Amino acid sequence: MKKKDPFVKIRPYNDDELPYAINRMLQNSGFIGSLMNFMPDEPLNLLVRSIRKTKTCYDFQKNIFGKMCQTFIDRSIDDLTVAGYDLLNKNKSYLFVANHRDIIMDSAIAQIYLFSQGVRPCRSGIGDNLLSSQVLTDVAKVCNMFTITRTGDARHMVTSSKLVSEYIRQSICEENKSIWIAQRNGRTKDGYDKTQQSVLKMFCFSDRKKNIYDSIRELNIVPLTISYEFEPCDQMKARELILTANNKKYVKAPDEDFKSITTGVFAYKSRVHLQFGEPINDYIDESLTFANDNEKIQYICSLIDRQMYKNYRLWPNNHIAYDILNNSSDFQNYYSEFSKRDFIKHILKQANVVDVSYMQMKQMLYTIYANPIKAAMENKGK
């Protein structure tokens, strides 16, 4: 009798599930439209025939989704640079804990880079709130994504978190498969890439018998930092921060997640840098004394954050925003007058929204871009 798969509800599809997913995707007009838009050099009839012949999820991810993502990159990014991966052990699996600036592009860029290195891509986490239709679910699960529950009562969330934790630990420790996961629930809105303690606690749910340090070491955590010259969805983020501050509770519009996905994919980003960090196992100091496990978790979060702030690529836009906010010229050597005029023009355009004051938007947008400078300064010497 075949053993029941405990992860069937959250895991990516297996190869034997691929034909059914392909049939559903090819019946969806939105998916067909995406093929025509993002793979325009290939005749649609030949492309559909090729997709139907695809035998493995890996081949679909590489040859279809990978090529579509490369089109996103080519159309919205002027220069993409990557560093740090050559210092990692290619035969080892890692838990890449990543800062989260864009819903799709953060993990997609990492996956495209791994393909270019001849390495199998990571399994990557995606919130169930983003899988609002069958076609989105099919694309995600064919492309090696596992589901993280974002909604439900406390009991359901604990059960779901434990299942995800077990899946992550099995992937890394038993299957030697690397994982990409965001350092927080939802994107960074204010420019501070801070790891949520709840995410680290979730990692440990699957290993209650070991102490915190042993549990974390087993997962081989490596911070992964992505830096966009033009912040994805900066207007939407600034608006949400202001409305949240004004009304205390922010309610998403029904199509807001989808709008964030499309805006993040298509909006101009200029330059982007992806930095693979160092395994935090090398930095855990067990001689430090903490009162309880919560303090240990907080300490491990700080190790991840330290690398995030150190490895974040600071662009002229960040320096300009800091100087404008502080009415200073501290960083004027890091940008030109031309780049300053160009950035201010961008901010003034993005500050125009219907339901938030222009001055509030302008201030918040500058703050979002300036905060990585503040984080780097606060982290200096640590």
Question: How would you briefly describe this protein structure?
Answer:
The protein is α/β, with parallel strands linked by helices.
Describe this structure as you would to a colleague:
This protein has 382 residues and is of the alpha/beta class. The protein has two domains: 15-232 and 267-313, Glycerol-3-phosphate (1)-acyltransferase (3-Layer(aba) Sandwich), CATH 3.40.1130.10; 318-379, no CATH class. It is 51% helix and 10% strand. It has helices at residues 18-26, 29-38, 44-52, 57-76, 105-116, 134-142, 154-173, 197-204, 212-217, 234-247, 256-266, 293-311, 316-325, 337-350, 358-379; strands at residues 77-83, 95-98, 123-127, 145-148, 179-182, 221-228, 270-276. The protein has a seven-stranded mixed β-sheet with strand order 1-7-6-2-5-3-4, sandwiched between helices. α4 crosses α5 (105-116), α10 (234-247) packs across α15 (358-379) and α13 (316-325) packs across α15. The longest helix has 22 residues, at 358-379. The radius of gyration is 21 Å and the shape is globular. The mean pLDDT is 94.
Question: Which CATH class of the largest domain?
Answer: Alpha Beta
Give the CA-CA distance, first to last residue: 56 Å
Strand adjacency order, main sheet: 1-7-6-2-5-3-4
Number of DSSP helices?
15
Classify the beta-strand content into a percent band.
5-15%
Largest sheet: 7 strands, mixed
In N-to-C order, the SSE pattern is HHHHEEHEHEHEHHEHHEHHHH
CATH superfamily of the largest domain: Glycerol-3-phosphate (1)-acyltransferase
What is the general shape? globular
Q: What gyration radius follows from the Cα positions, in whole Å?
A: 21 Å
Low-pLDDT residue intervals, each spanning 5 or more residues: none
Average predicted local confidence, pLDDT: 94
Instruction: Kindly name the structural category.
Output: alpha/beta
